Amino acid sequence: IEKFDHLPTPSFSGASAMVSIIEGCSKYCSFCVVPYTRGEEISRPFEDILAEVIHLSSLGAKEITLLGQNVNAYRSLTKKGSLADLALLIEYISEIDAIKRIKFTTSHPNEMNDSLIECFGKFPKLAAHLHLPIQSGSDRILSAMKRNYTALEYKNIIKKLRKNCPQISISSDFIIGFPNETDADFEMTKKIMEDVKFDFSFSFIYSPRPGTPASYIRDEIPHETKLRRLNELQSMNDAQGKAISHLMLGTKQRILIDGQSWKNPAEMAGKTDNNRVVDVKVDKSFMNQFVDVTITEVTSKRLRGELI
Fold first, then answer.
1. Does 283 lie in the same domain as 228?
2. Nearest to residue 307, comparing CAs of 298, 286, 151, 199?
3. CB 282 within 8 A of CB 269
4. What rounded mean pLDDT belongs to the chain?
5. Alpha helix stretches (DSSP H) within the chain
């Protein structure tokens, strides 16, 4: 039985739909169970994905998110037998008139090739946001994690992305307190946080997964030390995110209204192309619509806008 032969009938709510394009992982990071629980990477047929996106667009989808554990590792063949990767998939989906915004997640740094990076400057429908987990800023820890890239290589990817799309927002994942992480290692993680200036990040204290190579490494870092490092990194990123939000004051942004504001039920909320949440004073008739707003205020982790 082929892995993608029995997917559920495509369905979604609102104007946003998610489409799985690749399953599994072949990276075998030392801390991760995914290759063992989900198997190695298997890409869905190119034409099947396009057919699903076209079908979803006929049902009213305006925003498509392409999904995969390592979504940018996608490789398949077109019906003519030529190689199809994520960059080609983005190009084809961009030609579907009803689709107004394209996203993809989650990506691995080793699969961020130049053709994919250039998509951010070539295709206006591709959202100006990328979630690209780095996990640590220390090359020693990255090697122990079996991530197979260095901090400098990661930063060079970011430079290329910002050259192609200056307004792109970058988010990431960090594992804090990986076995044998020293204060010097953590300082390197802080350094890359400062150098890259992530819009936001998800950071976690390391938790061993049974059976993974990292689970056999003796962990001698006190929990208090891990917690201190976590809080320090999160505080840094919160300050960075707020500073980036302030730079958006007065700018024109396109948002997709996708629900009520949790801060004020009389208002609606939506996300910008660079993945910022904006509250705007409009009624429910704007639900599932793209609108242009001017950013007028920065609040905690959110923006406020006025309809143009």
1. no
2. 286
3. no
4. 96
5. 34-38, 46-58, 86-94, 114-122, 139-144, 151-164, 183-196, 223-247
- Compute CA distances 143 → 147, 151, 224, whole Å: 6, 11, 25
Task: Please determine, for residue 100, whether its predicted confidence score (pLDDT) is greater than 60.
Answer: yes
Cis bond before residue 78 (omega within 30° of 0): no
Q: Is 9 left (phi over 0), alpha (psi -120 to 50) or beta?
A: beta
Those residues with Cβ within 8 angstroms of residue 270's Cβ, 6 or more apart along the chain or in another chain: 255, 256, 257, 258, 259, 277, 278, 280, 291
Q: Give the bridge partners for 103, in sequence order.
A: 65
126's CB contacts (< 8 A; 6+ apart) are 90, 94, 102, 103, 119, 120
Q: How many domains does the chain have?
A: 3
Residue 234 CB burial class (10 angstroms; 0-12, 13-18, ≥19): middle
Neighbours of 22 (CB within 10 A): 24
Tens of pLDDT, residues 114-125 = 999 999 999 999
> 247, 267, 283: which is the final residue of a domain?
247
Token pair 């994905």 is at which residue?
A: 49
- Indicate if 205 and 161 belong to the same structural domain: yes
Residue 278's domain is classified under what CATH number? 2.40.50.140
Residue range(s) defining the domain that contains residue 270: 252-307
Are residue 132 and residue 118 in the same domain, yes or no?
no
Confidence of residue 11 (pLDDT cuts 50, 70, 90): low
What CATH number corresponds to the domain at position 136? 3.30.750.200
Widest CA span in the chain: 58
pTM value surpassing 0.70: yes
- Integer CA distances (angstroms), 127 to 47, 63, 104, 120, 215, in order: 23, 10, 9, 8, 37
pLDDT for the residue numbered 301:
81
The CATH number of whichever domain residue 22 belongs to comes to 3.30.750.210
Asked if residue 85 and residue 175 are part of one domain, the reply reads no
Residue with tokens 């998110």: 65
